[in-house]
Structures are given as structure tokens and as C-alpha cells.
Amino acid sequence: MPLGLELSDFTDRYGKFKDGLNNRSAHRINLKDFLRLKLDRSLPKQLRKIINNREQLRKEIEMEYDGMLIIRVYDKGLRTDLPYTDELLAKVSNWVIPIGVTLREFIRHDFEKLQMLVVAGMTRYGKTVFLKNAITTLIHNEPDNVKFTLIDLKGGLAFNRFANCKQVNTVAKNADEALLALEALHVEMEERQALFLSKGWEDIGEAGWKERHFIVVDEGAEIMGFESKEARERCMYLLGEVARIGAGMGFRLIFATQYPTADVFPRQVKANTSAALCFKLKNSTQSMVVLDRKGAESLPVKLPGRAIYQTDCDLIVQTPYITNDFIDTKITPHITIRARSEEHGASSRGNEEKPRRSYTTVFEET
Ligand SMILES: Nc1ncnc2c1ncn2[C@@H]1O[C@H](COP(=O)(O)OP(=O)(O)OP(=O)(O)O)[C@@H](O)[C@H]1O
What we know:
Elements: H1 7-11, H2 14-21, E1 25-27, H3 32-35, H4 43-51, E2 54-56, E3 60-65, E4 69-74, H5 86-89, E5 96-101, E6 106-110, E7 116-120, H6 127-141, E8 146-152, E9 168-172, H7 175-199, H8 204-207, E10 212-218, H9 229-245, E11 251-257, H10 267-271, E12 276-279, H11 284-291, E13 306-310, E14 314-318, H12 324-331, H13 340-344
Parallel strand pairs: 7-11, 7-12, 8-9, 8-10, 10-11
Antiparallel strand pairs: 1-2, 3-4, 5-6, 12-13, 13-14
The structure holds adenosine-5'-triphosphate.
């Protein structure tokens, strides 16, 4: 790396490098075209056409810094679809989910290593499909240990198919339900913290508990639209608490939004999250909020599933496309029809009974 420059000086110019490499066409002779030759007077013309055939270059580049600046150039771009299949599912286990493919490899996200994940992207670019992919994978791979609190602030339609899975504690569809669910989680978290302290356990690993509780929020920006200011602030605070202290106690957060502005992310969520999956965004300001760099605005248009996966480095991936039929085949064995009131107090570890509780948020004027 030339002295005084950093990786972002190159990645910010990704488009310029790529267009520079592709600004001409190349000779391409397709042997199959010879089989289609017609033996008539136009033969020389046909041959000339085959020999002079030119195709626009579609080279792709990847940039990385590992002490050296590495720029990889590929003849072809990344595939535009990656169906979620049984073979793909077999490549992940435990708390690992598939993120997608790059030009070189299959990428996974391990929630034991990076417990919180931010997902962002304009509408119709694949956020919800990705969340369904994550939920299905975890239910399939850890059916006895995973628990979910699903908060779908777009009305609950996307998560509805998971509502009767035994692993799903709650599907919250609006401000009141979201607040109630988060209050319940907060109480559980505080109880766990007190128990861990009394037992001298540092974290869930040391406690030897297998359960992991995932809180999945789809359209987190809606929280800013809650009518009541108190509800808004309380929700932000509670999500922030999950991000701040939840990881060690087995809580995992996936926070998705299509409007990533600075005020949409609870401060603690941004501060405690070191992984992001970012689909195309409207502008570089939004990209800066999610990735701390420009780039998500330059992802291709009309290409759902294309995203930047950011951990300690940034990778351009094509995420798997999971169909609702595939989801249903995987979750049907886990569906139990229960009254929702029973689910709310569902035991979160093993089969031990917990008293059913209700939670009330009281706002006092100061
Ligand atoms: N990984 C993918 N590969 C190919 N196509 C995809 C992928 N993900 C999503 N799509 C296509 O894009 C459409 C929109 O995806 P999805 O519902 O996940 O978008 P979204 O970002 O959640 O949008 P909204 O915010 O409007 O719900 C899907 O119906 C599907 O046709």
C-alpha cells in the first residue's frame, strides 16, 4: 500500500477501477456457432461474423488489505442467484448460518463469534428473505436450543409462518407488542444476570447452557415512528440493553432496517455490533451509517441478494434465496398449535416450568 493511503482510498473508487477494466470489448469465438453454419452463399459472411464477434468484458474485482493491498481480478462477475438447497444447508451447523458466496468461497456467519448482526438495504433487495433464511437454518440445526422473539414492525406477515414453531416465543407485530416482548426479555436478562452473578459464572458458556435466544427485528426504523415518545425511547433503550449486555447471557440480536439513518439505530446496537449485511442502499450517507464507509449505494441495481458482508473485512456476496416451500418443509416438524398465552411464558431452558407472568410498562412524569 503506498504510504499515506488506506484501503478505503481504493474501495471508494471500486466503480472506477471496474469500469476501467471493462471499458472495451474482447474477441470471443464461440465454437458452437460453427455448428450452426448454413452452407450457402452467405458462408463467408457467417464466418466473418463468428470470427469478429466481440463481447463486452464483465471483469469483477475484489479488494482486500492484509498488510498488503490485494486486488483480485476475475473474468466473470459473481453469480446472480444462489438457491437455498439441502446441500447448502448441510454446509452449516450449530449457530452458523449461510451468508452467501463471494467470487471465491462460501461465507458463513457464526453467532457464537459475532453475536449481533445489523441487516440493511432498500426495499425489495433481500432483507426479509435473508432473515427467513437465518431463522429456518437455526430452527433446523438447533431445534432444541434456539428460541426466538420475532419483532416484525411491517405487520408480522413475513414472520407469521414461524409463529407456531415451538422455538418461537413471540411474534410482535406493532409498537405495543414489541414493547411487551422487549420488557419480558429485559426481565429475563436481569434475572439471568443476577443468577450468573450469584453462581460466579462469567457467561453462558461457563454456565454450560445450550440455549440461545435470538431477537430478530424487521424494519427497526418503524420504532422511530411509534406515536408515543416514551414507547419509542423505551424500545430503543431495551434493544440497546440486549446489545450491550445480552451477548454473554445467550441473547443474539438481528436488527434489520431499510432506512439506516443515525437515529434509527439504538446507540448501543451500533456500538456493540461488529457484523453487518448490507444490501443496496439509496445513498452513501446511509452506507456510512451501516458500514462506516461508502459503497452500498454502488451495489448493482435490480439485483436482489447482492450485499456487502462486513466483519473485520468487507466481502461482496450473493445471499441464498430461500423459497417459502423450502422453509415449510424444514419447519413443519417443529410446528405445535398452542394458545399464544401459553407460549408467552414458555420455559426457556429444558422443560422446567416457569410461572406465567405479565409485564407492564409504567411511564412516570419526572
Ligand atoms: N438472495 C436472493 N436471491 C435472489 N432473489 C432474491 C433474493 N432475496 C430476495 N430476492 C427477490 O427479491 C424479492 C424481495 O425480497 P425481500 O422481500 O427479502 O425484500 P426486502 O428487502 O425485505 O423488501 P421489503 O422491505 O419491501 O420487505 C423477493 O421476493 C425475491 O424475488
